Amino acid sequence: MTDVMDKNTALKSALEKIRQVVPEELIHENEPMSSHTSFRIGGPAGALVTPENEEELAAVLRICAAEPGLEYMLIGNGSNFLVADEGYPGIFIKLGGDFSSVSVEQENAGENGEYTLVRAGAAKLLSSVSTFLTERGLAGFEFASGIPGSIGGAVFMNAGAYGGEMKDLVVSVRLMRPDGSEIIELSGEEMQFGYRHSMVEESGMIVLSALLCLGHDDREEIAARVKELQEKRNAKQPVNYPSAGSTFKRPVGGYAAALIDEAGLKGYRIGGAMVSEKHAGFVINAGGATAEDVLAVMRHVRKTVYENSGITLEPEVRLIGCSLQ
User: Fold this and answer.
1) Nearest to 210 by CA among 137, 164, 162, 156
2) 246 catalytic per annotation
């Protein structure tokens, strides 16, 4: 009880200070996270704060970092989050305003003008970036066009699909330290991109924007490739149900979906959570699922796949306030 009281006191103190630097309409207390995650699941956050520029973000981070016992973290488009039914006792920070920009930074760069550099804000949706690039005949981003996330989240986890990954395009990333004290720019190499991973995960750095390198091609050709990939995604994935995308990471020497399918788990259901019958790699919210429903399905899948193959699946979805243990 004392721990809960301490967290509530820290939250109240932080919000009083945040109100001095962020407009009231950008602060939402007891905000249901089911409204901010693609799973449509999650209890209330202590508060959701939406800074609209780097100055507001730095101020919010400084306040949060200085408040003893306060939990806080960044949330992007919420497309890779499972938030506990009990919610989150601290502050979720969701970027808005200036962080939703996208612009051409250097056109026809390179010795022969063979590429163009584009700056995309962390809050900009990948689908919107894809539209911006397609309209300008800029190629290479097609693989990401259907990924339901933001630039920040995509950089955080080196998102990829259909043979492409963010690391293939990222020239550099503008980052803010987790306490708001400094802004730095790291090269793609310094980002230490790996499979569904970057250095952001360990460092706690906040992605502000990414500089992307795109090639040139005919607009119609790019649009056709985007359409083809979208059709593939719609045909193979349960896009008509809320989910967090691929539930488990691809294990060494195999594919999570194939292992789950081989274990006979398609259609396995607990409460409102179910292993998709269309794509075994997805646990979906088939209707009224709770976080505990999803976790129970994930636990059963891990246990059964291990018994069947000897491989332990690791979650790709980020678990906030909940655990598979």
Assistant:
1) 156
2) yes
What's the 3-state SS for 4-58? HHHHHHHHHHHHHHHCCCCCHHHEEEEEEHHHCCCCCCCCEEEEEECCCCHHHHH
Cα–Cα distances (Å) from 316 to 81, 195, 228, 248, 319, in that order, read 9, 11, 26, 5, 9
Determine the Cα–Cα distance for residues 166 and 149; give it in Å rounded to an integer. Answer: 12
Residues 229-287: tens digit of each pLDDT:
999 999 999 999 999 999 999 998 789 999 999 999 999 999 999 999 999 999 999 99
Three-state DSSP state, 262: helix
The pLDDT of residue 2: 46
Furthest-apart CA atoms within the chain: distance in Å: 66
pLDDT tens string 136-150? 999 999 999 999 889
Q: What is the dihedral of CA 53, 59, 60, 61, to 10 degrees?
A: 100
Please tell me whether the overall predicted TM-score, pTM, comes out greater than 0.85 for this model.
yes
Residue 119 main-chain phi, psi, to 5 deg: -100, 120
Asked if 62 is an active-site residue, the reply is no
pLDDT at 13: 95
From the candidates 52, 62, 316, 318, which is the catalytic residue?
A: 316
Catalytic-role residue among 38, 246, 276, 302 = 246
Q: How many CB atoms lie within 10 A of CB 30?
A: 11
Could you tell me if 208 and 101 are in contact, meaning their C-beta atoms sit under 8 angstroms apart?
no
User: pLDDT category, 1, cuts 50, 70, 90?
Assistant: very low
Catalytic residue among 56, 119, 142, 196: 196
Query: Which residues does 310 contact at the CB level (< 8 Å), separation at least 6?
Result: none
